[in-house]
Amino acid sequence: MNYLYLSAFVVSLIISFAFTPLAGFLAKKFNVMDHPDERKIHSKAMPRWGGIAIYLGFVLGVCSLFFFPRFGKLLAFKHKIIINNDLVGILSIENQFIGILLGGTILFILGLLDDKKSIPAVPKFLIQIIAALAVINYGVNISGLNLPFLTNYINFPLLFSQIITTFWLIGFMNTINLIDGLDGLAAGVVAIAATTFLVVAILQSDTKIILFSKQLKLAAILCAALAGACIGFLFHNFHPAKIFMGDSGSQFLGFILGAITVIGTLKTTAVVALFIPIIVVAFPVLDVAFSILRRFSNKKPIMEADKGHFHHRLLGKGWNQREIVFLIYIITFVLSLSAILLTIFNGRMV
Known about the structure:
Layout lengths: L1 H28 L3 E2 L11 E2 L3 H13 L5 H7 L2 E6 L2 E7 H24 L4 H17 L6 E2 L8 E2 L2 H22 L5 H20 L5 H28 L8 H18 L11 H6 L1 H16 L12 H7 L4 H29 L1
Antiparallel strand pairs: 1-2, 3-4, 5-6
Helix pairs in contact: 1-2, 1-8, 2-4, 2-8, 2-9, 4-5, 4-9, 5-6, 6-9, 6-11, 7-8, 7-9, 7-13, 8-9
């Protein structure tokens, strides 16, 4: 499978890198520009449709694997879901793949429209729920956990599974969206997270549970493509940025990252798997959580942007953008390394 991961990464990187200037041209042509104001850091209007290049890089990167028979064989895998000796459904890897692309496309289109003309918070949130429910309908859901002190996999009731998966995906979407405040920050953090999940998925893909093994391999492929798309875009987005990813990029990245954890790291063999994705994105999650509490206490809309994030505070203390971004990269990398070590340690214990 290693050549599939490498191919997905390289193709996604090349396409994302090559299409980013075109995305900037389209943004300028259709006047999709991010204009400076008192709460923003940049001093000139910037094109904000960089998500087009990220989306194309990811989608074309994974779809290029159809040239490899082994990818088709992976997608063809189906598993009968039997609970209490009753057949309750058939889980298809191909359906999960289609569902993730469908949900990601919905969020990408939402982001394009939001970048052009700001969409109110409530309709935006409802569309995020629709995207989450769409991918759940294709079999991407947190169906249960394998607790270390029990021998059997614990299946969640259907409604609870749908609710927790929806909140999980929406949490990832908005976390990446809200941290996209400095040149190269969101793309770099997602690239590190995707690479970490790739390593975790590969380490766990030899599990004896065939269904989980197949899902982990699909997750690893998606991780490789996501990392490639982010790095290709970073060549144009790192400070001083020539283009912003906009909501079309940040919401898409958050959704794909969340979906990857659902079919990937959460399928590992113990409840500790639940903490792996949380550890990797712990810093942006905490930053967003404190921002929400701050806005709530100040009686401001939760989704309203402000200049109270961690990186804004460092800017106020004299740090420059590159220094702050590298600091957050390092923090994310250290957290990611701890997640990988946790995976290795947990693998030796089971």
